[in-house]
Amino acid sequence: MGSAEIPFGGPAASAGTVYLVGGGPGDPGLVGLRAARLLATATVVAYDRLAPPEALDLCRDDAELIYVGKQPDRHALAQDEINALLVAKARAGDAVVRFKGGDPFVLARGSEEAQACVAAGVPFEVVPAVTAGIAAPAYAGIPVTHRGAAPAFAVVTGHEDPTKGATQVDYDALARFPGTLLLYMGVGRVREIAAALVAAGKPVTTPVALVRWGTTRGNRR
Amino acid sequence: MGSAEIPFGGPAASAGTVYLVGGGPGDPGLVGLRAARLLATATVVAYDRLAPPEALDLCRDDAELIYVGKQPDRHALAQDEINALLVAKARAGDAVVRFKGGDPFVLARGSEEAQACVAAGVPFEVVPAVTAGIAAPAYAGIPVTHRGAAPAFAVVTGHEDPTKGATQVDYDALARFPGTLLLYMGVGRVREIAAALVAAGKPVTTPVALVRWGTTRGNRR
Questions:
Q1: Domain A18-127 falls in which CATH fold?
Q2: pTM of the predicted structure, to 2 decimals
């Protein structure tokens, strides 16, 4: 595509700049106007395993598309490689979009990519996006807040860095959190998390929803 | 405008349907593709005080634009009126977009508008959006999560329903929350909230950012 005019999309992607662009939870209709404009004008697009693949149709025909999707078990090394790639491409004069699933700053590595740009003196822009914890329940008919019922919600990693030990997430405090709890990447630890919350006083009658492939055609709940 | 082609915007707004559409925190570039397509095809658009006004340029020339912005002090009455308006317009055969600031289900009244549609038998669709608590700090260079530092964030109302009393938000649990706290609409109670968190054990050295008009040209922090 590439030539699509996007209202309110702002200026085209600039040579020598890195754009940390959120793609939202999966439905390409949730991609933002600025994000679409940047995808349509970048010369390099480094995209995630979870970024909405349809949106890559917006890219220029001559754009270099680089799949940097990470396997769950080998984050650390790959992230360094991604950081280095973004910096190297920008320094080579490309207009670089790092196209990520969800929001770049919500339990993603966007802040580390921003740090890499700062360290390298490469200009960058962050484009926030719809986060799955809000949108996936919404598509399932569940509001994360509701007047009189839930005046708050919390987004918590369900897949902690094993090197941090178990104490980083205080399940006692979480069990008392006055609102909806949204666990990301929690499917592998769902039993332990539920047990910890109940042990800390969360009623066993608390309603629970599990969503996978939220907002996409593969949506299951 | 109205005729703008929006990639991945999905089908046009349907007669007799209510669309609860989030406009994001202020920057019209953060409006989503589905949201833009619905704005461009609705026959009635009921818009908020905080929905990005520029995005209304997308509307059809013959669309009826209705300002339903609420003053902070008279929520209750106005919300009933808004619910009734949405239902009446849809029943009259309009394709109705309810265009809201932020996300319709995050400390907004979108879930009540959805309930009104259900009660009236009017079909509706929810279009999630970028929420200010994530985007406004991002524009200020602050990630709400960061590996090794903040594995979670919480969005909490800073402007509780006065009829609920003070006990709905448990500041003791909030003070122990293992991540970033995002207080919405908290400017009027910032002293009391800070005092309550410190009294519950939050270190007085905890970094704090105040953002107003986040992501807009009036942005101050």
A1: Cobalt-precorrin-4 Transmethylase; domain 1 (3.40.1010)
A2: 0.93
